[in-house]
Write a structure and sequence with these properties.
Blueprint: E1 2-7, H1 10-27, E2 32-35, H2 42-54, E3 63-66, E4 68-70, H3 81-94, E5 100-101, H4 115-131, E6 137-140, E7 162-165, H5 168-174, E8 188-191, H6 194-198, E9 202-207, H7 213-221, E10 239-244, H8 254-262
Parallel strand pairs: 1-10, 2-3, 2-6, 3-5, 6-9, 9-10
Antiparallel strand pairs: 4-8, 7-8
Helix pairs in contact: 1-2, 2-3
Bound molecules: fructose -6-phosphate (F6R).
Length: 270
């Protein structure tokens, strides 16, 4: 399934993935990017912005679809994923804001008890991605519990975009964005499903630090199981896992992954 690339640090990962994204955009100016929030992809976005500027790459036709959004958080809240995507991706790279979408665009803090709004939002997002021609390159982080998007352990591996309840572990991990206050972290979200994510043409999973080592090992070398939703990536024909030494710490086949990277034919991209 996956090519596993072990890099020195987040910066090297950012360079590698940004180069791949830049090449995609140069060959397909209306490329569709799948965007993750969180810490892991930040260097990718910064390096891509650098390449866009240095090489005068036209990104005016590029569109983006984010993975997820918290519920019952106003879109204007600085930690909403609408605000985060604008601050860390759209503004940094210079994308057209009209072409960058986040699940639940229309929900804007709507009550979770608004059944009609909640039910309709997920399917509408999946239809929008399809209408755009599908995601060319999906950037992913991974939760310490093995989630991708906010598909927590036990999620259907065939799921579309829908409302999910965040795991306690995820809320604890993300409390750092809310002044360390767990009570401030939303309890629910809308997230692309595993089935949605698997439709993207190229998946790039980023993970750094020892805290991700168990989740990375379960994803790459464990059985395909809803207990580790990211393991569903094994079913996809084009996945690149870019990790640092610490995140690779629990993998068994490290020597082979390094051998593959060191002996890669020049014509092969990630
Ligand atoms: C973010 C997302 C999550 C994060 C994951 C890792 O849009 O969908 O799956 O990618 O929680 O977060 P970081 O990178 O902050 O460790």
């Amino acid at each position: 399934m996956a090519e596993v690339v072990i890099v020195k640090n987040e910066d090297e990962a950012g360079e590698l993935v940004a180069q791949c994204a830049a090449t995609l955009i140069e060959s397909k100016p209306d490329a569709v990017l799948g965007l993750a929030t969180g810490s892991s992809p930040l260097k990718v976005y910064r390096h891509l912005a650098g390449r866009v500027k240095a090489n005068h790459i036209d990104v005016s036709q590029v569109s983006g679809y984010a993975l997820d959004e918290y519920l019952e958080l106003p879109l204007t809240h600085p930690e909403s994923y609408h605000a985060t995507i604008k601050r860390t991706v759209t503004d940094v790279i210079g994308l057209d804001p009209q072409k960058v979408h986040v699940p639940g665009d229309a929900l804007n803090g709507a009550s979770m008890n608004d059944a009609k709004a909640m039910r309709g939002a997920g399917a509408a997002y999946d239809r929008a991605i399809e209408a755009a021609g599908g995601v060319d390159m999906q950037i992913l982080g991974i939760g310490t519990d093995g989630h991708v998007g906010f598909n927590e352990p036990g999620s259907s591996l065939a799921s579309g975009t829908r409302i999910k309840t965040l795991a306690r572990q995820t809320r604890v991990d993300n409390a750092r964005f809310f002044g360390g206050n767990l009570d401030e972290v939303p309890t629910h979200c809308i997230t692309q499903g595993i089935g949605t994510i698997l439709k993207a043409r190229h998946l790039v999973l980023l993970a750094f630090g020892a805290g991700k080592a168990n989740a990375v090992a379960a994803t790459v070398e464990g059985p395909v199981s809803a207990s580790c939703p990211a393991s569903a990536l094994q079913l996809h024909p084009h996945v690149t896992v870019v990790i640092d030494e610490a995140a690779a710490g629990k993998l068994h086949n490290v020597d082979y992954y390094r051998w593959v990277t060191d002996n890669k034919p020049d014509w092969q991209d990630i």
